[in-house]
Amino acid sequence: xxxxxVAVVLxxxxxxxxxxxxxxxxxxxxVLVVVGLALALIPGFPVVVLEPxxxxxxxxxxxxxxAALETSVPAFRHNLRSILLLAVGLVIFTxxxxxxxxxxxxxxxxxxxxxxxxxxxxxxxxxxxxAIARRIGLPRRLVTILEGESLLNDATALxxxxxxxxxxxxxxxxxxxxxxxxxxxAGGGVLVGALGALTAAFLHRxxxxxxxxxxxxxxxxxxxxxxxxxxxxxxxVAVVVAGLYLGHRMPTLMSAAxxxxxxxxxxxxxxxxxxxxxxLVGLQLREVLADLNTPFAEVAGLTLAxxxxxxxxxxxxxxxxxxxxxxxxxxxxxxxxIDFTGATVISWAGMRGVVTLATAxxxxxxxxGGMPYPRALFVWLAFAVIVGTLVLQGMTLPMVARMLKVQxxxxxxxxxxxxxxxxxxxxxARERLESLADTASPDVVDxxxxxxxxxxxxxxxxxxxxxxxxxxxxxxxxxxMLEAERAVFRAARDAGRIPEDVLVRAQRDMDLExxxxxxxx
Length: 521
Fold this sequence. Notes:
There is one protein chain. 79% of the residues lie in helices and 0% in strands. The protein is built from 22 helices and no strands. It has helices spanning 2-23, 28-40, 52-69, 73-78, 80-105, 111-121, 128-136, 140-168, 175-205, 210-230, 235-253, 256-283, 285-290, 296-326, 329-334, 340-348, 354-361, 375-403, 411-435, 442-461, 470-494, 500-520. The longest helix has 31 residues, at 175-205. By secondary structure, it is an all-alpha fold. GO terms for molecular function: potassium:proton antiporter activity; sodium:proton antiporter activity. One of its GO terms (cellular component) is plasma membrane. It is found in: Cell membrane. It comes from Catellatospora coxensis. Residues 12-401 form the Cation/H+ exchanger transmembrane domain.
C-alpha cells in the first residue's frame, strides 16, 4: 500500500508540474528535475531508489521504441554519417577523456574503473535533448541528428561500460574477447531487432482489433529487450531497429483505428514515463549523498573537472569532425555537412539523463581482488553531470539558439510541399472514385468529389492567408454545430429518451469528426 501511495503521489506531482510548465512556457524536464531535488531535501519525503534493471529494462525500452517509431527512416539514413560519428565516436572519445582525467586526479584508482565512469557519463539522454530541441524550434535536420544520436549512443556506452567493468573486476578480457563482445552486442542487437520487427509486423497484419494491435505494440519493446538480454546482445540496438522498421511500415501494417488509438496510447505512456524519470532523477539526491564521505573540497574539484570535461569534449569532437566531414567530395556535392552554427548547437545539446544514473548505480562494489574504490564518489559525479548538464545546458540552449540566430524550418515550404502532395493524392483519390462511380448512387459520388476538392483546397488556402480562409470558416461553424448536437444527445440521455450506449456511440462519432477538423485548422 505504501508503494502504491508513493506512486500516486509522484504521478500527481508529474501531472501538476507538467501542467504548470506548459502554462508558463517552461522546459518541463528541467523543472521536474529541480522539483525532485527540492523534494529530496524535505525531511520525511519518501526515498525512491532507482534500480538499474528497472530503468534499463522497464523504462528505457518503451521510450526508445516510441522515439524510433516516430523517427523518419529516410532522414535517419540521410544523416547516418553524422549520427554514427556522435553516437559511436563521440561517446568513446568522451569516455576516454573523462577516464583519463579522473585517473590523473585519482591515480590510486585503476584506469579501467575510471574509464567505466567515463562510459557512464558519456551518452546524452535519449529524451531531454530532443524534447528541448523540438520545443525551441530547432531545424528539422538538427533534431534528426540529435534523435539519431540518442537512439544509438546508449548502446555504445553500455558496451564500453561492460568491457571496462569486466577489466576492473578482474575478468580476463583480451582484444579478441572485446571484439567478440562488440560484435555480439551490435550484430546480435540488429538480428534480434529485425526478427522482433518481422514477428510484430506479421501479427499486426493479421489483426484489425485496435486493442490487440496496441497490446502487440506495447509488448514489442519488452519482448525484444528480453530476448536481447538472454543472448547477451544490445537491447538498445534491438529496440531501435525494431522501432525504425515498424514505424516506417506502420501505414501498411495497421488499420486507421489501430493507428489512432496507438498514437494516443503511446503519447500518454511517454508523457508519464518521461515525467517520472526526470522527477526520480532529482529525488535521488538524498540517496546519492548518503554514502558520500569524500572531503568536500575534493568532491567539488572533481565535480567541476568532470562536468567541464564532459561539456568541452563534445565541442572538441564536434568542430573538427564537422569541418573534416565537409571536405568529403560526396558531402560537398550534396551539401549535407554541418556548419558552425549547427555544430555549436549540437555541441551544447549534450544533456545527460536517467541512463547515466542507472549505469552509475550498476558500478561494482569492489574491484579485482576485493580492492575498494570510491564508488559513492563515482555515483555522485554521474549525478552531478546529469543535474549540471540539464540545468546549465538545458536552460541556456534556447538562448544559445537565439544568439546564433538559428533559423527554424520555413513553415511555408512545409505547407507548399504538403499542398503539392495533397494535390497528387486528391488526383489519385478522384481517379479511384471515378473507377468505382458506377457502384454507388450519383449523390454519394458527388459528395465524395466535393470532399476531395475541399481537402485539396484547404492546404493551399493556408499559404499566405492573412484572413480567415473558407476552410477555417467551415471548421469554426462545424464545431459550433457539433456542440449543439452534443447538447441535444446529452439532454436526450438525461431525459431517458435514449440509453447511455447510444450517447457514447454518437459522442464517439462526433469526437472523431472534430479531431479531423483540428487537423484542418
